[in-house]
Structure formats: C-alpha cells, structure tokens
C-alpha cells in the first residue's frame, strides 16, 4: 500500500564547520602562514635587540671614564693645578678622570711613574727622568737666581768660593735645589766641599744676612713670580743697598753638559723696584717642571688629556695664576725632552677625530642595522603580500557565492550562505589578521559582502513568491 506523506520542504540547519565553508580552511592556512611570518619578524627583532644591547654594553664599558693616576708633590702649586683640573674634568663629564697620588717631592713622583704606581707624574728635568716617562705638558720653567747683598761685595760666581750660601725653598725641595747649585759651582771649578749650604725659609733670610750667617742667597723659581721677587727685595733690605744678581755667564755651556738644564735669561727689571732689578739682563740656567706620561699609556688618552689641559688652562688660571705658565713641549725630533706620541699628535694637529677613531665601528654598526632593517622590511612586505593573497581568496569566494545564491532552491541554503558570509567577515576583521588589512582591502571586502547580502535578500524574496513555497512538497514513501 502506498502512503502519501506530506512533508514541508525544509531541511534542518547543518552544523557550522570548516568543511561546509571552504574559505574558512583557506583563511586558516593563510593565518598560519602569517603567524609564521610574525614569529620570524619577532625573532629578527629580538636578535636585533640583542645585538643593540650587546653593542650598548660594549660601548658602556668601553666608553666609561678612564681613571688616570697622577703623582704630584703634596701641597705644591702643581698639586693645586692638578686638583683643579680633576674637578673641571669631572664637572664637564670628560671621558677622563684624574686621581691624585700625593708624594713628598718631585723625585718621588718620578719614581712612582717608573714603578707603575702612577700613570702621570709632575717632576723636574734635573732630578733624573723615569725611563718610561714621556713629556706631555710643560708646567713651568724655573730659573736659578743667585743674589748677594751689597755688603758682601760678591759680584761673580767665582766669588762664591769658600762662602756660605743660603738655599731658600720648601723643605722637600732643598736637596734637589742644592744639587742644582752644586752643578753650577762645579762647572766653575768650585768644589762643593768649599761652600757651605744653609737651608733657609723666607722669614729667616733677613736675620741670617744681618747676623752674617750667609753671604749669598740661592732660589729657584719663575723669574717674574712674586716669591722670587720677594727674596730679592728682602736681600736688598737686609744688605743695605741694591743686591748683586750674579750672572751665570757659562749658562749655555752648562746646558750642553747637562741636557736636563736649559740656558735662561733674567730680563732687566724682572723683579721690579724703584730702581729696576736687575739693572740689566742677567744670564742664568733653568729647570723645567714637567707633567710626564707613561709611554705605555694609550695615545688617544694622552691626546685627549693634553687637549683638555690646554682647553681648561684659562679656567684653572682664574684661581691659580701659575697655570698660565703651562706651555707645550717641543715636538721636533731633536728635542731634548721626548714627547709622548699622543701629546705630539695633538700639538701637531694630527690627533684623530671621533669619526676617524671609531669610523670602522660606526660603519659596521650602520651596515648591520641596515641589513636587519632590510630583512624586517622584506618580511613585512611578504606578510602584506600574504594578507592580500588571503583577501583575494576571500573576495573570490564571495563572488562565487553570488552564483550559488542565485541557484539556491530553498531558504536553508540561503541561511547557510548568510552564515558563511558572516564567518568570512568575522575571520577577516577580528584577531591578528585584521591588523594587516589596508583601507582598500576593507572597502573591497565591505562591497563584496554587501553584494552577497543583497543577493541573499533578492533570492529569499523570489523563493517566497514562487508556488513551491506555498505548498508542501509531496514525497511518496513505499
């Protein structure tokens, strides 16, 4: 028997899964590729960050201020100058810092440099130079001044034989000053045993002359400085008349035999006074106070430090006038004082600029960063291409859906098409995939989805008007 079963022409909704919507699988595949690209980009960025971090650490340790130890006589004018320079370098955030190593005298300072206990040392040329010492800055040149009171009747160096000479200097310099005086006397065939050396302080000069304890006074200093002028003035007052400044006529010969000593001239009127003292220029010898650097010290460090000393000279001299006496040593090949190559490079205008020193590092760094940037740009371009390819697939699917919608013969198929369109929009505009979409892609997607929705509405209206939609479908079931 045949039964007629009346069924409505409706199909239960199908479950939503990727097998129903072929575009979803394509979107997932493109998304996986995008994720791989993103991981690659992040890996490169992490590597670039690591390289930059390592470069920063290297620059931090390499660019830290270099601490230079300076041996200098305690409580001397050189100590004041070095301390002032150290403060200024720190205040100006220089790449070099100075640390003072205080010693008793210039000779000990030279030993500190030679033994490696200091990197720089302030010493005197007549005290024996350290083997590893090279000249950097001339701090000053000090002349030997021998002055005799008028009542002593001494007018020449030869007249000092058998006399008592007062040596005026700080306690720590007395031995070195006496040795220089001995060198002068020996050159004039006056044995040091035939001369009495009497250490004196400034305040003791007048009393020593009045008591007949000394016949002449010896002092070392800058000829135009106030201490030396004061000694000459005291001798003039105690000697009851203008003193006799003894000329060292053989100064050039002494300098030839003792390279650490140089010939000098005390100009007329150097010590002032109502009557010019001296009345005419006087020949003398001089010793040089040097700031010496260890020959092993880097040329760049010494060059920078030499530049800093001369640049800071006016500021230091504002509080310590003796700093104005700093001058550059001779860089000629036959100079008596060997100059450190770093100092010579600056003084001769040949010191390397920042670009010349670090040009290779800067060039390599720029090249590495350029390569990293190019790689990231290529990956981003590839990611953008992948996004466009994915969007092209989505648009192609939406266009294909238009034909399928027009062929749909029941509302259930239209419902599935609408769900697929929603899934496409949701997948394209949410999550990480949406970040790579450009404005033209979004506009194209909106236009295509709009067309699909319009087609769905039109087909739904057509199906509603058709006779098959008004009557149930008849299935014959045996």
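-> sequence recovered:
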């Amino acid at each position: 028997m045949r039964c007629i079963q009346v069924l409505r022409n409706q199909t239960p909704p199908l479950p939503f899964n990727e097998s129903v919507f072929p575009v979803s699988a394509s979107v997932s595949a493109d998304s996986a590729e995008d994720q791989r690209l993103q991981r690659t980009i992040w890996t490169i960025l992490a590597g670039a960050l690591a390289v930059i971090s390592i470069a920063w650490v290297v620059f931090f340790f390499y660019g830290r201020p270099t601490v230079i130890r300076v041996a200098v006589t305690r409580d001397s004018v050189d100590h004041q100058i070095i301390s002032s320079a150290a403060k200024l370098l720190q205040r100006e955030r220089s790449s070099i810092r100075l640390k003072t190593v205080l010693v008793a005298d210039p000779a000990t300072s030279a030993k500190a440099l030679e033994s490696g206990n200091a990197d720089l040392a302030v010493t005197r040329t007549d005290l024996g130079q350290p083997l590893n010492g090279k000249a950097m800055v001339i701090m000053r040149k000090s002349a030997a001044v021998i002055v005799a009171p008028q009542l002593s009747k001494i007018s020449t160096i030869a007249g000092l034989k058998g006399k008592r000479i007062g040596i005026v200097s700080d306690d720590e310099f007395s031995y070195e000053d006496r040795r220089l005086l001995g060198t002068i006397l020996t050159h004039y065939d006056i044995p040091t045993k035939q001369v009495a050396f009497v250490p004196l302080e400034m305040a003791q000069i007048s009393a020593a002359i009045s008591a007949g304890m000394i016949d002449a006074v010896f002092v070392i200093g800058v000829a135009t400085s106030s201490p030396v002028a004061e000694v000459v003035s005291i001798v003039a007052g105690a000697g009851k008349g203008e003193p006799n400044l003894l000329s060292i006529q053989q100064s050039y010969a002494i300098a030839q035999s003792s390279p650490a000593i140089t010939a000098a001239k005390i100009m007329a009127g150097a010590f002032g006074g109502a009557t010019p003292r001296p009345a005419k220029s006087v020949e003398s010898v001089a010793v040089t106070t040097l700031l010496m650097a260890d020959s092993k010290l880097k040329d760049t460090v010494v060059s920078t430090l030499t530049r800093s000393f001369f640049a800071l000279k006016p500021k230091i001299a504002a509080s310590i006038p003796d700093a104005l006496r700093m001058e550059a040593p001779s860089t000629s090949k036959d100079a008596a004082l060997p100059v450190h190559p770093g100092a010579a490079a600056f003084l001769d205008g040949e010191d390397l600029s920042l670009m010349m020193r670090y040009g290779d590092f800067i060039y390599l760094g720029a090249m590495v960063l350029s390569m990293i940037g190019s790689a990231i740009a290529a990956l981003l371009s590839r990611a953008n291409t992948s996004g466009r390819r994915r969007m092209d697939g989505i648009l192609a699917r939406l266009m294909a859906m238009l034909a399928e919608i027009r062929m749909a013969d029941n509302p259930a198929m239209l419902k599935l098409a609408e769900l697929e369109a929603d899934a496409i929009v949701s997948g394209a505009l949410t999550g990480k995939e949406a970040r790579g979409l450009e404005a033209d892609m979004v506009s194209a997607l909106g236009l295509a989805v709009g067309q699909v929705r319009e087609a769905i509405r039109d087909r739904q209206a057509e199906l509603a008007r058709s006779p098959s939609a008004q009557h149930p479908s008849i299935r014959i079931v045996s």
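Confidence is low (pLDDT under 50) at residues 1-27, 470-478.
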